[in-house]
Amino acid sequence: MKFESVTIKDIAKVLHLSTSTVSRALRDSYEISEETKKLVVDYAKSVNYRPNPSALNLKKRRSRTLGITISEIANSFFSQIIAGVESVAKEKGYNVIISQTFENFEREQEAVRNLSQSVDGMLISLSSETKSLEHIEELQQRGMPIVFFDRIAKNLEGHKVRSNNHKGAFDATEHLIHNGYKRIAFIGNPDNLAIIKERKRGYDEALEFHQIPHREDYVKYCQHGGLSYEEVEMVMQDLLSLDEPPQAILSCADKITTNCYRYLYKHHIKIPDQMALIGFSNLDLTEFLNPSLSIIQQKAVTMGTQATELLIQQIESKRPVVDYSEIVLEPDFFARDSSKGH
């Protein structure tokens, strides 16, 4: 038998009242006498009446649901962001729908389009393939609240929460230089992403500051963000086949860092004796690897909480939001065995 909850119509029928009277009584309206209110509320409690949240939200044209698009839940950085998002959403009475793009532009377009039909606002981190932002601009023009995080859209208005990517890459490159490494490779996601441009700028400026010549053949990009081991494997083979291969690698994405470490281990290339490695990573176990991995760690949970707070503020604002915030979080740097000096 299908479960059927008690409705306002059921209460009205039993008490011989109109549905509007019952509805007003349950909302404690001044238009209804205290006697009638007590009658309705007492009966509603006795039959375990619960308001239908879907109906209430439909009336308010609100779903109390947030959408989030990320590249991959399995990525530790994004899973930590989701933890931050859901902690704030739950506290504020919102649900969260998560959509993965797997670094694919078409999947991002589809995810954004589908989410827009059922959420009050969106948290968006762009895919590696995303170059056109028309699908997001269209939603903004229709009034959809959107907050960008991590992989932000620099040319679009809106709240943004990101890491200080320039500083993270500069500090890591400088650390390698101080430890005696001069031939340092850079591996990142495609440079259409603002975060990769900033990390590349940090890398370049550290080399320039220490008067180390820049070599274009040491700069490599993984078009799918290192999602597959094979993609990183090809980049590593290119670097190691150079007449003068690098002595150290700065990896600029979580998956790339993991797969670089895997490649070196698999090919019996000693870290850091034959190749030093440092990378952006939010994996919990990097300090327990052998050798332990030096990382630039982003404040992922904080990024998730702050982006969600900004989004809910925008959703619940009684006036159109025209002043936007850009929050920049400082990353943490952990120097470990994988980047030790010669």
Automatic annotation (TrEMBL):
Q: For the HTH lacI-type domain, which residue ranges apply? A: 6-60
Keyword terms: DNA-binding, Transcription, Transcription regulation
Q: Mind telling me which PROSITE patterns this protein's record contains? A: HTH_LACI_2
Q: Does the keyword Transferase apply?
A: no
This protein's record includes keyword Transcription regulation: yes
Q: Name one Pfam family in it.
A: Peripla_BP_1
Entry-linked InterPro entries: HTH_LacI (IPR000843), Lambda_DNA-bd_dom_sf (IPR010982), Peripla_BP/Lac1_sug-bd_dom (IPR001761), Peripla_BP_I (IPR028082)
One annotated GO molecular function = transcription cis-regulatory region binding
Q: What PANTHER family does UniProt report for this protein, alphabetically? A: HTH-TYPE TRANSCRIPTIONAL REGULATOR GALS, LACI-RELATED TRANSCRIPTIONAL REPRESSOR
Q: What protein name is recorded for this chain?
A: Transcriptional regulator, LacI family
Query: What organism does the record attribute this protein to?
Result: Arachidicoccus rhizosphaerae
